[in-house]
Structures are given as C-alpha cells and as structure tokens.
Amino acid sequence: xxxxxxxxxxxxxxxxxxxxxxxxxxxxxxxxxxxxxxxxxxxxxxxxxxxxxxxxxxxxxxxxxxxxxxxxxxxxxxxxxxxxxxxxxxxxxxxxxxxxxxxxxxxxxxxxxxxxxxxxxxxxxxxxxxxxxxxxxxxxxxxxxxxxxxxxxxxxxxxxxxxxxxxxxxx
Length: 171
Ligand SMILES: [Ca+2]
Ligand SMILES: [Ca+2]
What we know:
This protein folds into two domains: about 20-75; about 80-170. Helices cover about 0% and strands about 55% of the residues. It has strands at about 20-30, 35-45, 50-60, 65-75, 80-90, 95-100, 110-120, 125-135, 140-150, 155-165. β1 and β2 (about 35-45) form a beta hairpin. One calcium ion binds near residues 102, 106, 108 and 110.
C-alpha cells in the first residue's frame, strides 16, 4: 500500500532570482611573446563590473618573470594589491619569491611573505623556507621549513616539515 504525503512549501522558496555572471579573461603579450597584462573581468546581467583582477608582469633581459603585480577590484576605489618579486640563480632556477601586500590601499606595505628555495644541481627543491610577516614589522610571525629527499630516480622519498609560529603575549 503506497501512501503519498502532501507537502506544501513556503512560497518564499520559489522567489529566487537567477543572475548570470560573465567572466572574460584578456591577455596582452609583448614583442617576446610574454604576457605582460592579464585581466579577468566579471560582469552581471546589467553589464556592471562585479570584480576585476589585473595582473601586470615584468621580465628581465633573459625573459624571466621577475615581478607580478596583482590588483583585485570591484568597487572602483583604489584597490588592495599584491606584488610578487622573483629572483633566479644563474641557471634560471627560482631562488626566492617575495610577496608584499597592501591590503588597505594606502601605499604602505602591510604584510610580507618570503619563500626561499635551496636547490640541487638539477634544480630540484631540497629545502624551502617560508617566512610570513603578517604585520610587516620586520619580525616573522610564522615560518615553515620543508626538506625534501629524493631517491636515485628523482622520486620524492621523504618530506620533512618544521613549522614555527610566534604567539604574542602582552606584558
Ligand atoms: Ca597598507
Ligand atoms: Ca611581524
């Protein structure tokens, strides 16, 4: 014997409106074929900009990406931005990345995160160190060190993490 239970839903459940968001990615390239400007713009049904993410890239004479500035905006004011600076060794392997963030758009850096890599002769990362200075006072608030071991065939056999965070106590 089947029984069918009648359920009546509250009317407000059906009063949802759907909006479409259009996302457009645009890349511009320099004479060397490197992208120097990448923009992602999202607009709603009416064509109004919902969010805008703009990355501008700089390269050194060897064509290596040395600086990327990322700006994410939605309201038209001076947006927060992050800048990533990358340094390389003579074999073009990445030695360090430094990310500085101006989160309140006052042109004063609010946070600095540094990632440094120790490489072997094949460019494999043996040691990486991340230092996070979340209030940009020059003192790291957390740090992480990762050591990676490879076997003779280049496969990772062991990863070892050491994390450290600074806890502030008022005195
Ligand atoms: Ca700032
Ligand atoms: Ca700090």
